[in-house]
Amino acid sequence: MAPVFRHAALLAGLAFVPAIGEAVYFRDKISWRAPVAASDAVTLAQAKGWGDHALWLDARPDEEFAQEHVPGAMPLNEDRWSELLPRVLETWTPDRRIVVYCSSQACGASREVSRRLRTEGGLKNVFVLEGGWEAWLAGRSEANVEH
Q: Rounded to an integer, what distance in angstroms lies between the CA atom of residue 110 and that of residue 26?
């Protein structure tokens, strides 16, 4: 019986070798860790300057969107991508710029959603909001202080 377990352990160990190699090789190439390209990032001031020509998409989980979101924003997250995308596409027009945000710059959801909109949807003018939801909140707070 011992040789059977030894062979099983050896096969299991060998099965992990390619996975470990791939993890080591691609460790810096994971999309949610990659910085947003400068051409794909947008500041809050720039996005607000687009006015009605901006379509705001919230990539956060449904619970966070339900609590509070950018006024007029639509949810589009990875969990319900197939369900939510058709509504976004119905609203989008070629003259609009898409601004995707999530909880913060550390959140990879906004980068992944914007990537998928570009690659799978073939959309242009898709941007990630620098600073994410927190930048929006800070901008809102600053606007209230100015009044």
A: 21
109: left (phi over 0), alpha (psi -120 to 50) or beta: alpha
Q: Indicate the DSSP class of residue 136.
A: H
The pTM assigned to this predicted structure is 0.71
Predicted pLDDT of residue 45? 95
Q: Where are the beta strands (DSSP E) in the chain?
A: 41-42, 54-58, 74-75, 97-101, 126-129
pLDDT digits (tens, 9 = 90+) for 20-32: 655 555 555 554 4
**Which has more confidence, 77 or 33?**
77
To 5 degrees, how large is the angle CA 64–CA 121–CA 104? 30
Residue type, 81: W
- Between CA 101 and CA 1 the distance in angstroms is 57
- Angstrom CA distances, 105 to 3, 75, 101, 147, stand at 52, 18, 9, 28
Q: What are 115's two structure tokens?
A: 């990537």
| Token pair belonging to 55 | 């379509």
